[in-house]
Design goal:
The complex is a heterodimer of chains A (104) and B (665).
Chain A lengths: L4 H21 L3 H24 L7 H32 L13
Chain B lengths: L1 H6 L3 H14 L6 H28 L5 E10 L2 E9 L1 H24 L6 H19 L4 H19 L6 H32 L14 H5 L4 H16 L8 H4 L5 H10 L2 H10 L1 H4 L9 H21 L5 H21 L3 H28 L17 H15 L6 H14 L6 H25 L15 H16 L10 H6 L14 H21 L15 H5 L1 H8 L4 H74 L5 H22 L1
Antiparallel strand pairs in B: 1-2
Helix pairs in contact in B: 2-3, 2-5, 3-4, 3-5, 4-5, 4-11, 4-16, 4-20, 5-6, 6-7, 7-9, 9-12, 9-14, 11-16, 12-15, 12-16, 14-15, 14-19, 15-16, 15-18, 15-19, 16-17, 16-18, 16-20, 17-19, 17-20, 19-22
């Protein structure tokens, strides 16, 4: 059986939803980061899928964008983790419910 | 090797300059490395100068030129360049050799100074700037190096900055030479305006070559005289000589460097370098600009020799002797003897450095005393210093046959005697020769002969680091005469691009006998006058100069430097003081009031607008802020500070957008 575009889109939509749910419901900052990474992975999957099923899939284009965005995601994860570490050092907690300094 | 040096001539001044920067970056405790670095830089410059000098010997009329463009503006571009010819070659050798001796001497002489490191940085800088000056092929580049030399002299004369007199002397040197440099600068601009180039030699287009000179016409005289103003300031010619004796406030090696290798040599060198400008359109070898040079030189030579008669400071006597000798060189240049003037400059470089370093050794031995009336009897205590000093003294007095100064002085007298315009400068110079022998005899009798006096009680000979440079320079002062004698006038013909012949019969000339008689007369007169100077005389009070006893008023006049400083104080300086006071008064009472009046108008306007602001605008703004605050409170309620709430809102928003988009489609 050959996978069709719809299969990929459904998988990626599921991945995105799982990620969003994680980001919205978990209280631990690291889990929120993981959720965000999952949503990014879903987006990357979409990129690859649309490129693969486009009329003329030329080799580098879609893959390059996906690799590029993975690189950015890696940088973002590094920054995010560093932030979490810094936040933990400052507040002695990573529970986001307690981090409400932005309250207006 | 020589080829390479000629292609990279700029390295010769660059090495001491870079060394100087390197030393400046050292900490002030790295004394030994500073001295070694400076001396190594000087040795490198000397070695490169020797390599650069060798090819100038092989070809007569050798001239290596390297021009480059500094910057371009519009259609004009400004060229600078380096030049190696016999004139530059011998100057390079003299500066680096004398400089090296002075550097080594300084290592011993300045050993106790707390700013030892800085001193060597400045010395290196001084030598580098002067080396750049002599190999410049552009009047502008020469002027840049000229000013660097001026800066270095300012830093070094004022080296003991904590002494107010040293700071004043440094300022005086800088400002006095600046007056001359103003003329130099104007002359340079004029020259550029007429000829369109400042390069000396540029394959036929330079300002000293035929095509360039042809553009000048009658303005050449004025340009030459303006440039001569710069030379007057630097080389201490009357009326700008006043800074040179005061420059004695610097450490003794600095005096030696200023008086021998650098600084004062620059003025004479400048005139020799741009000599084609001076001699343009000469009738029988006489032009109006050269005539001015001759008379300024004669005035300076004679006046300084007279003043030197009545000075008591060992270094000040030498300073006036330098002024006098520089006058002599200027006369030589003016009457057409460029080679003679340059020969005397080179010979003078050796023996004047020797004399200053000898004086430094004496001062070192006498624990800082500089008054010759308090010394005496040093002959047996400082034998090396005495013998080398005596050689320097005889070279300066122009004792014929053995000493370099004698030959060059004869050469100058010879050309001066044949000046077509007038014989008077020649006769005046003869008086100068007698006076030189007289005041040097006076100095040497006071310092080295007679009984010991106050300052010479605990004197000892200086260490080798001081005496070895003295011996080297003394040998130079004697051996240099080999290339100067009329029998084999190698240096003369080298400078004038003629093949040299050996002709023994030329050795005996009338000038030889004349100078023998004159110098003999001067020395004899000196011995007769001062032999008993220290001894008690029934009629003459102790510690009174015999000349002072014989002619008290004349002596007072000379001792006070002919009142020239005082004359300037009540004319030029008083004038500028009055100007300063007047502008100060104007500033306080006129301009200040004017400005305050405008200020009051502004104040009134400010009060008016302030009222409007308070009553009109402020009230409206107040209302607006109250409204904005209420709105803000409303909005801030939406901000819970919970990240996940925000995220949820974003997610709902995106979902709403998607639904809206789907509905549109």
């Amino acid at each position: 059986m050959t996978p069709t575009l719809q299969v990929f889109l459904i998988v990626s939509a599921a991945l995105f939803s799982v990620g969003l749910l994680a980001a919205l419901s978990r209280r631990h900052a690291i889990f929120i980061l993981i959720g965000i990474e999952m949503m990014l992975a879903a987006a990357n999957l979409n990129f690859i899928a649309f490129w693969r099923f486009s009329p003329q899939p030329r080799p580098p284009t879609g893959v390059m964008i996906a690799i590029f965005s993975i690189a950015i995601a890696a940088a973002e994860a590094a920054v995010g983790l560093a932030l979490v570490v810094a936040v933990y050092r400052h507040y002695r907690t990573t529970n986001v419910d307690h981090l409400d300094q932005l309250k207006g | 090797m020589s080829r390479w040096i000629i292609d990279h001539l700029w390295l010769i001044p660059a090495v001491p300059l870079v060394v100087s920067l390197g030393i400046l970056s050292l900490s002030s405790t790295r004394r030994k490395s500073a001295a070694i670095l400076a001396i190594a830089g000087q040795i490198a410059a000397l070695a490169m100068s020797v390599f650069a000098f060798v090819p100038t010997l092989r070809t007569p009329g050798f001239r290596a030129v390297q021009n480059f463009t500094w910057f371009t503006f519009g259609n004009n571009s400004l060229h600078l360049g380096w030049l190696l010819d016999p004139l530059a070659g011998v100057m390079l050798l003299m500066i680096t050799l004398v400089g090296l001796c002075i550097f080594v001497f300084s290592k011993g002489y300045m050993a106790g100074d707390k700013n030892f490191v800085r001193f060597f940085a400045y010395l290196s800088f001084f030598s580098g700037a002067m080396l750049g000056l002599v190999i410049s092929n552009s009047l502008l580049l020469l002027f840049i190096c000229w000013e660097l030399v001026g800066l270095a002299s300012y830093l070094l004369i004022g080296f003991w900055i904590e002494r107010p007199s040293a700071a004043a002397a440094a300022k005086k040197a800088f400002i006095t030479t600046r007056i001359g440099d103003m003329g130099f600068f104007l002359g340079m601009l004029w020259l550029y305006g007429r000829s369109g180039t400042l390069l000396f030699y540029d394959g036929g287009n330079g300002c000293l070559e035929r095509a360039g000179l042809a553009l000048l016409g009658a303005s050449a005289t004025f340009i030459a005289l303006l440039i001569f103003c710069g030379a007057m300031g630097k080389s201490g010619q009357f009326p700008l000589h006043v800074w040179l004796p005061d420059a004695m406030e610097g450490p003794t090696p600095v005096s030696a460097l200023i008086h021998a290798a650098t600084m004062v040599a620059a003025g004479v060198f400048l005139v020799a370098r741009v000599y084609p400008l001076f001699s343009l359109g000469a009738i029988n070898g006489v032009t109006s600009s050269l005539t001015v040079v001759v008379w300024i030189g004669v005035t300076t030579a004679l006046m300084a020799a007279f003043i030197a008669m009545a000075q008591a400071d060992i270094k000040r006597i030498l300073a006036y002797s330098t002024v006098s000798q520089l006058g002599l060189m200027m006369v030589s240049l003016g009457v057409g003897g460029v080679a003679g003037g340059m020969m005397h400059l080179l010979a003078h470089g050796f023996f004047k450095a020797l004399l200053f370093l000898g004086a430094g050794s004496v001062i070192h031995g006498c624990h800082g005393e500089q008054d010759i009336r308090k010394m005496g009897g040093l002959r047996r205590l400082m034998p090396v210093t005495f013998s080398t000093y005596a050689i320097g003294m005889m070279a300066l007095s122009g004792v014929p046959l053995l000493f370099s100064g004698g030959w060059t002085k004869e050469e100058i007298l010879h050309v001066a005697a044949h000046w077509p315009a007038s014989r008077l400068p020649y006769y005046l110079l003869l008086i100068g020769v007698v006076l030189t022998a007289l005041y040097m005899t006076r100095q040497i009798i006071y310092v080295f002969f007679g009984d010991r006096r106050a300052a010479s009680q605990h004197v000892h000979e200086s260490p080798p680091v001081i005496t070895v440079p003295l011996i080297v320079l003394a040998s130079c002062a004697i051996l240099f005469s080999i290339v100067l004698t009329p029998a084999w006038p190698w240096l003369h013909d080298y400078l004038t691009d003629e093949p040299v012949h050996f002709n023994f019969s030329r050795l005996i000339q009338p000038a030889l006998f004349i100078s023998l008689v004159l110098v003999g007369a001067g020395v004899a007169l000196g011995i007769g006058l001062y032999r008993k100077a220290s001894a008690q005389d029934r009629q003459r009070p102790a510690d009174t100069d015999p000349l002072e006893f014989a002619q008290p008023q004349l002596f007072r006049f000379l001792e006070n430097k002919m009142w020239i400083d005082e004359l300037y104080a009540c004319t030029v300086i008083a004038f500028s003081w009055t100007g300063a006071r007047l502008s100060d008064w104007m500033d306080r009472n006129f301009w200040d009031r004017l400005v305050r009046g405008f200020g009051a108008i502004g104040q009134l306007f400010g009060m008016f607008t302030g009222g409007i602001d308070e009553r009109g605008i402020n009230a409206g703004v107040d209302e607006a802020t109250v409204g904005a605050r209420g709105l803000g409170r409303l909005m801030s309620a939406a901000h819970s500070g919970q990240i996940q709430t925000y995220l949820g809102v974003i997610a709902i928003g995106v979902l709403a957008l998607l639904v809206f988009y789907a509905w549109l489609a």
